[in-house]
Design brief:
135 residues, 79% helix, two-stranded antiparallel sheet, mainly alpha, single chain
C-alpha cells in the first residue's frame, strides 16, 4: 500500500493511535486502579500523554508524505493538532461520563468504545486541517 495513499496513512494512523492508546490506557489504569484517582482525572492524564505521542508520530511517520499546511509554523501546527486533540478529549470525556456516569457501564469497556470514536474524529479532522495534500 503506497505510503502517501489515504489508506496507507489511515493504517499508519491506526498503528500510531494504537501506541498512543497503549500509553493513554496504561496511564489511565495506573491512575485509576493503583492511585485510586477519579476516573475522569485518570482519563485526562492518559489522554494528554497519548496526544503528545500521537503528534510526534503523526508528523514523522503517518503524514510524512503530505505537504504540511503549517510545516514552517510548528507552534501553530501543534496548536491546531492539540485543539483537534482537545476536542477529542472533550468527546472522550463526554462519552465516558455518559457511559460510566449515566449508563453505569464498565470503565474499561467504555474507554475502549470512546477511543474508537475519537480515533475516527482525530484522523479525519487532522487530515483535513493539517495534512491535506501530497508533497
Amino acid at each position: 500500500m503506497p505510503r502517501g495513499s489515504l489508506l496507507g496513512q489511515f493504517v499508519r494512523y491506526l498503528v500510531t493511535g494504537g501506541l498512543a492508546f497503549a500509553v493513554d490506557f496504561g496511564l489511565f489504569a495506573l491512575c485509576l486502579y493503583k492511585f485510586g484517582w477519579h476516573y475522569l482525572l485518570a482519563n485526562l492524564v492518559g489522554l494528554i500523554a497519548g496526544l503528545v505521542l500521537n503528534y510526534v508520530l503523526s508528523v514523522v511517520w503517518v503524514f510524512s508524505e503530505c505537504k504540511r499546511v503549517l510545516e514552517h509554523k510548528k507552534t501553530a501546527e501543534f496548536g491546531i493538532f492539540a485543539v483537534v486533540g482537545f476536542a477529542g478529549v472533550g468527546i472522550n470525556q463526554l462519552l465516558m461520563y455518559l457511559m460510566v456516569g449515566q449508563l453505569e457501564l464498565n470503565e474499561v469497556f467504555s474507554k475502549m468504545v470512546a477511543a474508537v470514536i475519537v480515533l475516527m474524529w482525530n484522523f479525519g479532522a487532522r487530515k483535513l486541517m493539517l495534512f491535506r495534500e501530497r508533497k
